[in-house]
Structure formats: structure tokens, C-alpha cells
Specification:
The structure is a single chain. This protein has about 130 residues and is mainly beta. The chain has one domain: Immunoglobulin-like (Sandwich), CATH 2.60.40.10. Helices cover about 10% and strands about 50% of the residues. The strands form three sheets. Strands 6-5-8-9 form a four-stranded antiparallel β-sheet, with no helix packed on it. The N terminus is likely disordered.
């Protein structure tokens, strides 16, 4: 009976912890990852190349990349927050871009996801044609 009680008490302590220390790595449980930083966009050839700083958190899983396309004059929503890709690297090449002189805006939203499935806040960036 004493062994069972100790196991139950010990398991409750583990479940209620918010931080695990593994060697020199502190991993926050229940805390979303940092949002991507230093996002840049370059138009090269017929592609838009997105690049951002690496996520170095030990529980990092992937980035989710969303895109929205609008035209400014007259305003027209062409594509609304479409999930383009998931990736574990800190860049993305959008080769599905149409260059026009009609004031099209490509807006990208990127967020990090950790192994628990928690998601960071979005990082936004727009590119106008």
C-alpha cells in the first residue's frame, strides 16, 4: 500500500512540473515556441525567397508557412491564408508567384510549432508587385 501511494504522489509531481532539465537543456513544457524572427523576402527570377533565423529550441518541430494574395486597385482577395507548406528548415521558396504590374500583395505568415503541437505567434511580411 505504501509503494502504491508513493508512486501516485510521485506521478502527480511529474505531471504538475512545468520544466524538465535534461543535461544542460531546459525545456519548457506548455510554453509555445518563439515566433520566427528576422524574416526577409527577396524576389529572384520568378520566385519569392523567404528566409528567417533558425529556431534553436530543443523541442522545435517545424514551421508552418501561410500565404494571402490580394490586389489593391480595385481591391480583390485572391487567396486567403492558405497553408503552403510545413518545413523544418528556416527558409522557403515560393515558386508559384505571378509577377504583374497590377499591385498584387503577397503576404506571408510563418509560425513555429513544437513537439507538443504548441504554436508560436505569427511573423508577418508582405511583398508588393
Amino acid at each position: 500500500m505504501k509503494k502504491l501511494l508513493i508512486i501516485i504522489l510521485f506521478s502527480n509531481i511529474i505531471i504538475s512540473c512545468t520544466q524538465i532539465k535534461i543535461g544542460n537543456i531546459n525545456e519548457d513544457l506548455g510554453v509555445p515556441p518563439d515566433r520566427p524572427s528576422n524574416l526577409t523576402i527577396q524576389y529572384v527570377g520568378n520566385d519569392l525567397i523567404l528566409d528567417w533565423s533558425d529556431n534553436i529550441e530543443s523541442d522545435f518541430k517545424e514551421y508552418q508557412i501561410y500565404r494571402e494574395i490580394t490586389r489593391s486597385s480595385p481591391y480583390l482577395l485572391i487567396e486567403k491564408n492558405k497553408l503552403l507548406s510545413t518545413t523544418s528548415v528556416s527558409y522557403f521558396i515560393d515558386n508559384n508567384v505571378t509577377y504583374t504590374n497590377n499591385n498584387y500583395r503577397y503576404e506571408y505568415e510563418i509560425r513555429a510549432v513544437d513537439l507538443e503541437g504548441l504554436k508560436s505567434a505569427y511573423r508577418f511580411k508582405s511583398y508588393w508587385f
